[in-house]
Automatic annotation (TrEMBL), chain A:
Catalytic activity: L-threonylcarbamoyladenylate + adenosine(37) in tRNA = N(6)-L-threonylcarbamoyladenosine(37) in tRNA + AMP + H(+)
UniProt cross-references to NCBIfam families, sorted A to Z: gcp_kae1, T6A_TsaD_YgjD
Keyword presence, 4Fe-4S: no
Encoding gene (name): tsaD
Organism: Caulobacter ginsengisoli
Name the UniProt record assigns to this protein: tRNA N6-adenosine threonylcarbamoyltransferase
Lineage of the species this protein comes from: Bacteria, Pseudomonadati, Pseudomonadota, Alphaproteobacteria, Caulobacterales
Cofactor section: Fe(2+)
Pfam families in alphabetical order: TsaD (PF00814)
Automatic annotation (TrEMBL), chain B:
Protein's organism: Caulobacter ginsengisoli
Protein name (record): tRNA threonylcarbamoyladenosine biosynthesis protein TsaB
Lineage, broadest ranks: Bacteria, Pseudomonadati, Pseudomonadota, Alphaproteobacteria, Caulobacterales
Source organism, top-level taxon: Bacteria
InterPro entries from the UniProt entry: ATPase_NBD, Gcp-like_dom, T6A_TsaB
Region (Disordered): 199-221
NCBIfam families (alphabetical): T6A_YeaZ
Domain named Gcp-like: residues: 40-120
Length: 331, 221
């Protein structure tokens, strides 16, 4: 490899992102064009509009990241681009952009698993993860527990059987009249209430799998029965139920698979109450807690670029074609 | 001497051609070697290799911006924008109806071009004397009848040309056989319309049902 940088491109859902990252995880520049205004009215991501917005924003985003870093094509060892999992129309914009740049700049293009990007996000700017580690990936699209024995060595422990925890946050947030994405507003609302309502903790004592659909439905039924309930208390009760489940699953994973560290990544890992709960649990268990800085918790291209370095070192070049579903164990 | 790369995107498969001035140096439709499906990077590298050229030899791109296969148009246009950005190349964009109008050549009757879209909707374009005079998106029957107007006879083209009898039973229809564009037509169009070539690196947008070209304007005086 000749260049010292990988250009990461991320367009799996509703953020168009580009970043330039060194092999050690130094981020020279990162740009994210968010689409919240496009999707706010729908209370969730509208896939067709997401794809169209990517078409408009992807080249300006890449142009800006190259300019911000003062980089030229000659600085690039490769282009790493999210190949899945994600929305098909969104993925194909990033992938075809990377393909066009790859031909024009004569640089190899590597299709990267978005989930592996999240796993590597905790090592951006500073190597934080001590292996072996239990990984909790919690976002709008995923709730995953895995164990890593090295940067690319992953064993799946459990995932959700229905909704992800972030999806539950967004759907309950819509019931409470919160803007999309609902996570930050939900946390603020919950902080003003009390967990007075005993919502279910789905599958809390049933292994390492998750389920959040029943919890969401329970909140909906409660609001139908009790239209005068304080929204702050509903939010606090919902968040408490989610945190109880997440803590119980992480505790069980660390017990069954003794590890040096717990790594919490994905958009929901930006939640202050989740961070506080995990910190207290890890302190009690004598396990190191590794969290990415807040800016790398949500979807970004720096994590894709850092993961692409793993692929490049291993000589892995998966086909750069969109994959709506892609297990975390695959590259 | 300008070297032009043409990308056809609307048919759902990608077709690529390379031309220098008036000569077509390569056309993927005449190439027996087929690469991975929908892999434009492979197709473009193959095209340039067969034409004896490198990406850095290109002077300009010409791209089909649809409408047509949603994923292929969007993917192809995105690829063209990225390649143009990488090499600071200008792009000329032509829509599907313009390409079909060129391929049909002079006709003694109006040409109705019909394409499907999602959910029972479609696209219609009407061409008179080689010029696209109107384009519409909407419910198939409605836009086909709007486009046909009072015409007693039409030439027809596009993926839905075989179904037009359902909507226009009393119109005499002549099938042109035109469905998937030839990328060599894009090379010819950009030679005929050099004013359509944009600024270096300037991206173009694929057409969709919200594009202004499908709203306003009239099919018939």
């Amino acid at each position: 490899m000749s260049g010292r940088l990988i250009l990461g491109i991320e367009s799996s859902c509703d953020d168009t992102a580009a970043a330039l990252v060194t092999e050690s995880g130094e981020v020279l520049a990162s740009v994210i064009a968010a689409q919240e205004e496009v999707h706010n009215a729908f209370g969730g991501v509208y896939p067709e509009f997401a794809s169209r917005a990517h078409v408009v924003s992807v080249i300006p985003t890449i142009e800006k990241v190259m300019a911000d870093a003062g980089a030229t094509p000659a600085d690039l060892a490769a282009i790493g681009v999210t190949r899945g999992p994600g929305l098909i129309g969104s993925l194909l914009v990033g992938l075809n952009t990377a393909a066009g740049l790859g031909v024009g700049w004569n640089v190899p293009v590597i299709g990267v698993n978005h989930l592996r990007g999240h796993l590597r996000s905790a090592d951006l700017e500073q190597a934080r993860v001590k292996y072996p580690a239990i990984i909790l990936l919690v976002s709008g699209g995923h709730s995953i527990l895995a164990r890593m024995t090295g940067p690319g060595e992953i064993a799946m422990l459990g995932t959700t059987r229905d909704d992800s925890v972030g999806e539950a946050f967004d759907k309950v947030g819509r019931m409470l009249g919160l803007p999309f994405p609902a996570g930050p507003a939900m946390d603020r609302l919950a902080a003003q209430g009390q967990p007075l309502f005993k919502f279910p903790r789905p599958m809390i004592n049933e292994g390492l799998e998750f389920s959040f659909s029943g919890l969401k439905s329970s909140v909906a039924r409660h609001m139908e029965k009790h239209p005068d309930a304080r929204l702050e208390d509903v939010a606090a009760s919902f968040v408490a139920a989610c945190l109880d489940v997440l803590e119980a699953k992480c505790r069980l994973a660390l017990t069954e698979h003794p590890s040096t560290a717990l790594v919490v990544v994905g958009g929901v890992s930006a939640s202050p109450p989740l961070r506080a709960r995990m910190a207290a649990m890890c302190e009690g268990l004598g396990v190191e807690l590794c969290l990415p800085p807040l800016r790398w918790s949500t979807d970004n291209a720096a994590m894709i670029a850092l993961a692409a370095w793993d692929y490049l070192r291993a000589g892995l070049y998966p086909p750069a074609v969109p994959q709506v579903r892609l297990p975390i164990t695959q590259y | 001497m300008s070297l032009t790369l043409a990308l056809e995107t609307s048919s759902g498969r990608f077709a690529v051609a390379v031309g220098r001035d008036d000569a077509v140096l390569y056309n993927s439709l005449a190439d027996c070697e087929k690469g991975p499906e929908r892999d434009l990077a492979w197709a473009v590298r193959r095209a340039l290799d067969q034409a004896g050229a490198a990406p850095t030899d290109l002077s300009r791109l010409v791209v089909d911006i649809g409408p047509g296969g949603l994923g292929s148009v969007r993917g192809g246009v995105t690829f063209a924008n990225a390649l143009a950005f990488a090499l600071s190349l200008p792009i000329a964009a032509f829509n599907y109806f313009e390409i079909v109008a060129h391929e049909a050549g002079p006709l003694d009757r109006p040409l109705l071009v019909a394409l499907p879209a999602a959910g029972g909707d479609g696209y219609a374009g009407l061409i008179r004397a080689g010029q696209v005079v109107g384009m519409r998106f909407g419910p198939l029957g409605e836009i086909m009848r709007q486009a046909a107007g009072e015409a007693p006879a039409l030439a027809v083209a596009g993926r839905l040309r075989g179904r037009l009898g359902e909507f226009l039973p009393d119109v005499e229809r002549t099938d042109t056989g035109i469905e998937a564009p030839d990328p060599a037509s894009l090379l010819a169009l950009v030679r005929l319309h050099p004013d359509r070539v944009g600024a270096p690196g300037q991206p173009v947008e694929p057409l969709n049902e919200t594009s202004p070209v499908f709203h306003g304007g009239v099919f018939h005086d």
